[in-house]
Amino acid sequence: MDALMLARMQFGANITFHILFPTITIALAWILLFFKQRYSATRDMKWMEAYKFWVKIFALCFALGVVSGITMSFQFGTNWPGYMNAVGNIAGPLLAYEVLTAFFLEATFLGIMLFGFNKISNRIHTLATILVAAGTTLSAFWILALNSWMQTPAGFEIIEGKAYATSWLAIVFNPSFPYRLIHMLLASGLTASFLVAGISAYRFLRQDKCPSVMAAMKAGVYTAAVLIPLQILVGDLHGLNSLKHQPAKIAAMEGLWETDTGVPLLLFAIPDQAARINHFEVALPKMASLILTHKSDGEIRGLNDFAGNHPPVAPVFFAFRLMIGVGLLMLAVAWTSTLRIYRYGEPSKWLACILVGMSFSGWVATLSGWYTTEIGRQPWLVTGVLTTADAVAKNVTEGMIVTTLIMYLSLYVALIVAFIFVVFYLARIAQIKATPLPQQAFSSAAVADVTSKV
Amino acid sequence: MDIFVNGQWLPFIFMVLMGVSILAYVILDGYDLGVGILMSRADNAEKDRMIASIGPFWDANETWLVLGIGILLVAFPAAHGLILTALYLPTACMLGGLILRGVSFDFRAKAKAQHKHFWDKTFIGGSLLASLAQGYMLGAYILGFDSSWMAVGFGMLVGICLVAGYSFVGAAWLIMKTDGALQRRSVYWARVSLWGTAFGMALVSLATPLISQRIFDKWFSVPNFLFLLPIPLMAGLLIVILEISLRKLPQPNDRLCWMPFSGAGGLFILGFLGLAYSFYPYIIPDQMTIWQAASAPESLMIILIGTLIVLPCIIGYTILAYRVFWGKAKDLSYY
After folding, report:
1. pTM to 2 decimals?
2. In a 10 Å sphere around its CB, with 0-12 CB exposed, 13-18 middle and 19+ buried, how is residue B226 labelled?
3. Cβ-Cβ contacts under 8 Å, A95 against chain B
4. Dihedrals φ, ψ of B310, to 5°?
5. Bond preceding residue B250 cis, omega within 30 of 0
6. How far is A411 from chain B (nearest CA, A)?
7. Residues of A in contact with B114 (CB under 8 A)
8. How many CB atoms lie within 10 A of CB A414?
9. What are phi and psi of A72, to 5 degrees?
10. pLDDT tens, B242-290?
């Protein structure tokens, strides 16, 4: 394997690991604020208990997000020195604004939010929660502005191979930015709400039906039920935007080789890039044209129009289908659960099991969506400006990348496993704490440990 | 050289900003890395209190590293790629260490009791690895990324000295933030690590002029030498004062408990000034100046405007956070 592929795998591994946690924290911060707000308004302890439980998982996610984010800021230089050389004048200020306006804000007030409750008034504590939530969202704003600019660059000129800004407004609000930002924020909302619903369902199944668990479950399920149709709508708009600005990506997503009218929607196929055909196609006639052009005989450009200049087809094709599949599953589960809980006040046992199984479904959908859009950008790093191959480090050997890749990968896998175990462990521990059977609550060192200290 | 014409002052400003960020990082994350290293010497109850003393702060402390490396990335993109690819492996080690310690911090409190010792070990190991790697990077930078065995050895030595340096700031922090037996142990830790710190500073101060004729001339030409003499003199004096006062700590009513930490800060500032003077105006020693590495002035200007508005706010709410958690660290609880 060559150094370019290894560098991509390493950066991909790191960004994959990183995105898991901000995807939770961006929206979980607002859910926490909702719990806090309900508590301040009603003084009902169930909201405070929900807050106390979820703030622990929030803190864990935040720590994982911070450390993997630090890694990324270094990997720009270690893996892609050509990137900052070519477009540093654009990427630099966007990254700088993210650090200055978002990172310090969230990191500093997180300390106050987590450990300051007894030291400041309830109102100031709520303010700290608001600032942390605002910080996470602001961070998403800046990084998605940069990411979208790499997909659909605007507001710049090239002088002697380097990009110079001509309009910052055009750079930030580049053509794909509004769609991508809303798509990502909704993805975060869905990831966090399915996590909250799933872990609450897990506690419910363990006969932990205290008011705080039920309140959190309802908050998670209802939020998901509202967000998922919005997400499908925004996803569709985002796709239309890509069709206009990145037609090669759409052709890869649809597995369409030849430009055609009345294009069928492929439910399944195995794209063969060497032969430039698909095997085992299962298709709905004319549906792709209908979805993408809103006309049953609309024309869509095929991959052969972009020969030598389009992304690898199979990964984009499959990642896109995985995202759509999980999205539709989310729709079914969220609405079924909403109806059931609305009518009976609690989910059936089977439904609760499905919710537990869907706890991390947001991760799958978000990652497959990111793979679709980022692999779909290839071979470009910045569309039409800089290829990924031109940006890769030239003086780093393959051996060095392999060594560090193995280190990062083993670390990341171990941490994801540890994270999932700890989340479920915290859910079990919370029950023992909530039902204070003396012999249990006070004899177990583990309980005292987890509940009283950090 | 007139740096205040033709937009030439912008890279200079950003060099100062980057320097201040790195200095802030070294002192602030230095104390929590140091506390992490010192945890290898503490018993279980002490570990919990040591963690409690840095709990609310470590996250924001590490953000200074992101800002420092961020300024290098955005203001001096040409140097960013060169430095980080030259330091590829130590950077990966540092990041591995920072990841391990950052997450262990949270996991140790939330995992099962029997796993807590494991997360304590990864916290200590991660802190140690990150500190060693940072010291190694400083050593490699001083030698202009020479890759001979001598250079590797020098990097290792600077790495060990930085471990001592961070342990010293960490111990000084604990003297300020704890009391009782832990405070007394911290005084002992501070006294031991102070000498490692002093040795490291002497080592770097001697190595830099010996490596580069240019740096030698900057320091030892006559009138410069007289103007610069106060830096090593003050550092030496500070070390002596610290040693004497550490012998007398802790004092009744906890007088002067803040003294070692302030002294440590002063020591790091002096060391930093010395290094900054040696390497200015180069961002890669004797190869690339800050002006050769800088971004376009328009881009720097827009970052500067943002910085001037936001940085005072950051400093303001950082002070607020330290005030909220003022005084001795109690057992930290989420509520």
Report:
1. 0.86
2. exposed
3. 70, 73-74
4. -85, -35
5. yes
6. 8
7. 446
8. 13
9. -65, -40
10. 988 888 878 777 788 888 898 999 999 998 988 888 888 888 887 888 8
